Amino acid sequence: MNNTDTIIVAPIGDIPPWITDTIARDVGSFFGFSTRVEKVLDDILFAYDLERNQYHSTKILEKLAQNAPDDSIKIIAVTKEDLFIPILTHVYGEAQLGGKACIISIARLVADLEVEMINKGGRRIVKEAIHELGHTFDLRHCEDQRCIMYYCRRLDDVDRKSSQFCRYCNIFLNDNIRDLCG
Ligand SMILES: [Zn+2]
Ligand SMILES: [Zn+2]
């Protein structure tokens, strides 16, 4: 029998270990699954767009899902590269709605990694990681500005919202996890 009960935190390229470790620790306790840091993709050059000088996140999500470890319930990838989807100038992350894979980019979330580490302890990174994982558990965007599923256009929005789901999103999440795990 295969147990699919682990959220994989997948660094792409050189990501400082404190970032992947922080995500693994916080999303694990948040969603109630075990976590593991493991490289899933060696590079994402296949998703590079020369004209935009950015990476198309949707293509990366497909490859992540194809290469998912057997015991993974979800995969959250972390990249330093700037991500886009064609209708937007950039995204902080993207997820397969109700699917397996999501990704966040730290390119815009942290201007200075060392300062971020000392002052904020990766709060923005963790918020966006939980937000994208929320989508993989089938959650849509929420209109409550304090809810972690609120859609953030700017860093101010990220900083303003809490690290929690609102009551409505929390009920939806727990239903989804129950369906998933039987
Ligand atoms: Zn979102
Ligand atoms: Zn909500």
Task: Name its key features.
182 residues; five-stranded mixed β-sheet; three-stranded mixed β-sheet; 37% helix; binds zinc ion
Model description:
By secondary structure, this protein is an alpha/beta fold. It has one domain: Collagenase (Catalytic Domain) (3-Layer(aba) Sandwich). 37% of the residues lie in helices and 18% in strands. The chain has six helices and eight strands, in the order βαβββαββββαααα. A hairpin with a 5-residue loop joins β7 and β8. α1 packs across α4. The longest helix is centred in the N-terminal third of the chain and has 15 residues. The chain is globular, with a radius of gyration of 15 Å. The site of one zinc ion (ZN) has 8 residues, from α6.
Summarize the structure in short.
This protein is α/β, with parallel strands linked by helices and 182 residues long.
Could you say how many structural domains there are in total?
1
CATH level 1 name: Alpha Beta
The radius of gyration over CA amounts to: 15 Å
How much of the sequence is in beta strands? 15-25%
Would you tell me which CATH topology applies?
Answer: Collagenase (Catalytic Domain)
CATH superfamily: Collagenase (Catalytic Domain)
Strand count: 8
Indicate the percent of residues in helices. Answer: 25-40%
Topology:
Layout: E1 6-11, H1 17-31, E2 34-37, E3 48-49, E4 54-56, H2 57-66, E5 72-79, E6 83-84, E7 93-95, E8 101-105, H3 113-119, H4 123-136, H5 155-160, H6 167-181
Parallel strand pairs: 1-2, 1-5, 4-6, 5-8
Antiparallel strand pairs: 3-4, 7-8
Helix pairs in contact: 1-4
Bound molecules: zinc ion (2 copies).
